[in-house]
User: What shape does this take?
Amino acid sequence: MLPNSHQTLHQAKVFKRLTVALLLTSILVLAPRRVRGGYACFDFNTDPAVFWDAVGSPGAIVPSWQPSGGLTNSGCFVLTDGPNQTSAFLFPDFQNGQPIAGFDLQCYIALGDWTGDSPDNGFSVNYVNADDPIVALIESGYDPGRGLNQDGQWAGSADNGGTDSDLPEEGAKSGVAIGFDTHSGDGPFDIRGISVRIDGQQLAQIPIPAVSKSDNTDLYPTAAEYLADPATLITGPHDPVRPGSGARLGWAPLRITMDANGTLNLYWKGSHIIPNLETAFRPGFGRLLFGGSSGPSAEFFGIDGLCITSDSNVATLGKATGSPVGFIVTAKNSGSSVLDPQTLILKLDDLVVPVTSAVVDSNNTWTITTSNPQRPLAPLSTHTASISAKDTRGIVLLPDQSIFTVPDYTTIAAGTAAAGVDTNAPGFTLRVAQAEFNADLPTPRRRADVGPGTSIAFGERVLHGDFGLNTADLRRYPAGVFHETNVINNSALPGNYGEFADDGSVANGLPAPNLPGLPGKAKRESGNVDGAVSIVTYIEFPKPGAYRLTFSCNAAFRTMTSANPLEQLNSQILSVGCD
Assistant: This one.
């Protein structure tokens, strides 16, 4: 059952310029390319275990859903109701895999009705790290158990001088763990009350010792009186007819808040029990988890009417992508959480490296770069990158670490730098050639000469004139050369090809242009134009660094650089491709 509007809980008040000539040889077609805040409520009026992960000790009927007995006698969920039981209840990921900066959890708890002299052991409320082993264990259907006296999944009593480990009532070993312990003596400093742990380290213990009178009788005769007393964790008297049933227990309001600065507040039965406790909690990914445990004296523990509001306003730091001179990483603002670039710390193989640039776009996505051209990374080498930062509110963001592989690359030799280039005349120079292969040319000879017709060797032989006269229509182009002052977006056939629309606004103002000089006079065979093109341009690199040169076509191409574009023997090959 969820509380109505009148049952809400109380809230306290990183040389010189290098210009090189690029010679590209290609065939046929050319075409360049280029929950903010989560809220979830669970009324337990239907069985949640059908969809959620609830595990318990062997042979026990808990954890279990009960259709009645909860707040206003509606459904509720019971984690312990007899002796020597353990249980864990892992809530679904209501954040859809997103991190949170804080939360406000409200629920109702029924606790007590033990069958021995004193109650034991209690329960815990946890917002556990999503990668905590306990999450995978519960999801696989195993109960983490209790008292394993080894490296168990729950925290132990070592903080209080004890030797016991793996105690559900002490909470998880990661994230936020709030323990409600109705049994003392697990160590000289172990007391009944409420404990707070962050990542397994106990920060506070609040003593709440009262459970019964000195003669082991009930403190009060009614549940209402228990609910009015925050100095006890018990929520009602015993059931003398059905001991351990929890039938006479009341439902006490519990509220736990954690803000983005790591400040925790806890309210029990409407009283502010833990005010403004400063913790080391930081935004991250997690899951809501309840744990319960009972000893020989048994204990009833149930939950109902749970609502949680989470603050998803937390900027996220992404994975790194390698470059020849460093790496690039992204980050994403979220609402009021805006990355503060002045707080960025980047590491490459555990060594701090400078932030070369940090730029945010209109979609609140940051592109963060570290670059050192003086110390390039080896092609295909593997490295570790990490990023940490705060947002503009001063909140520490969840750091990220990733492994990246440097892409394969070629270093352009300084000796290829060209001189006397007119940088005021942008564009490309294209030379197109076509060969005539008539039907009377024996097929075996054609294959022996040109292979399939889409190789670099074939293209170069066509350009060289090895197969006869150039049959391309070059009447419009002086000296058989076409000068493109804009972008290259040509195709052998009319149509809208490439990423630039063939609407006349590009490629020399000709809508849907053919490749210059084509289709020519040669007879087209099986859709092939038997043509090739060489393209020469000059690129000025403003400073040393990593640059990506992109060339796209539907057949073979080769990209070379040289101080003289006519140079063949000593040109440096940058890339080769073929579809």
About this structure: Residues 504 and 511 are 4 Å apart (CA to CA). The two ends are 63 Å apart (CA to CA). The chain has three domains: 38-311, 315-397, 414-577.
